Amino acid sequence: MIYSQDYARSIDDVRTIVRHAKLDHKNLTNIGQAIYYPAAHEGQNLDDIKLLEVDDHILEAITNGQEVCFKGALNEKVVFCTESRTYDVKEAEISNSLLLVKNLKLAQATSRSPIKSPKGGVNTSMDSSIEEEDPETIDTIDEVERKDVVKIFHDYFELRQVKPKYRKIIDLLRLTRYAGPENEHLIDRSLLFRFKQLLDTVQCSKDEFQEGLKIYRAIEIDNRVRMLDLEYEYRVLTLLLSVISENSWEPDAIDKEVTLEAMQGIIPYEVVNGMFDVYTCLSERVPGRFQYREDLVCALFAEKILQHGLKFHIDEFLVTWQEALPEGFEVNEQYLRGIGIVDRESSVPCVRGLNEADLPMNLLGRLDLLFRTKERWNLDQIEPYIECFATPTVGVTSILAKYTRSLVVKGVRMYVSKH
């Protein structure tokens, strides 16, 4: 029995097929390519080859030799990461079979003459040399090359850009919150992560991962990434802020070196240096000096007040919050984003703590908890709790339109539970 892999198609075979297909040989080029279906070669696992659809960003990253990778533990949905973006991975079917052929020649590569009429969409390179010849005796194809199919694809991986999945950073680092060197004997060292270990575990790109560490105020201590205990972080920040008044500095003229020296022997250097980098930015007015970020400072003080889950009358909370802040900082309800909610629709207008990091990562479960906490939400209030589920193509408003009901109250669109 002759198997297809052992059979070599000849020029005569190709010419016969051309005549049966009623093709005009004038429109064909010199080289014919015979396609052979793949054989099960020893040591070659064709299942290891997958088809991946990429966008311009991924293509550029691969072309430039940047690192790309898949991430996902056993019980996680896999994601694809470049150095700066994260993509959800979904298997999709191809309506027609797609053949992967190695070294297949296209267009001009199959002709030994220059292409005369590229606008026509067909190769007429041989027209001038055969116009006077008998078409029955002249055949353009005079060479046949064998081309083996590497694999036949019926599906591919479809990529969709998504927001980075930061939740694992919180879940892993919360287990070993740093509360000062005096409490380190209580920490299980086997649960600590180096930067690279945590990066390989969390489902997001390297750039997004570094941004996530800033968002959750994580720093490196003894070559391990740590989140700080809230009480300890509050105490350290209060000490850092006190250096401003001690040196009579302007709010945007803070000297980093002097600040670090003032904390020497009181707070470990890595903690002071890490927190200073998190809570400050370069001064726009004084070169080489820094200023504290009001939004982060005010948010930590608010989180400290709201951490026990108590409700506060709005006016009482704002007064308490302002009195707790150092001189030069002003409260703003926008600083409560993601850590507390203002409920002016209840019988007693109040503020309560609601940290986004404590909510379920299941969208429906999160919405259920949100609407049990507060019956009506406007977009500004609910957005920080939903935006982690948004994508570049599906925004928060689209998610709310699908999973909630909306109504207009006094000219403001409010969202309520569907059920």
UniProtKB/TrEMBL annotation:
Location of region: Disordered: 115-136
InterPro entries: Dcc1
Single GO cellular component term: chromosome, centromeric region
Record's keyword terms, sorted: DNA replication
Pfam entry (one): Dcc1
Any one GO BP annotation for this protein: maintenance of mitotic sister chromatid cohesion
Homology family: Belongs to the DCC1 family.
Name of the protein this chain belongs to: Sister chromatid cohesion protein DCC1
Protein's organism: Anopheles culicifacies
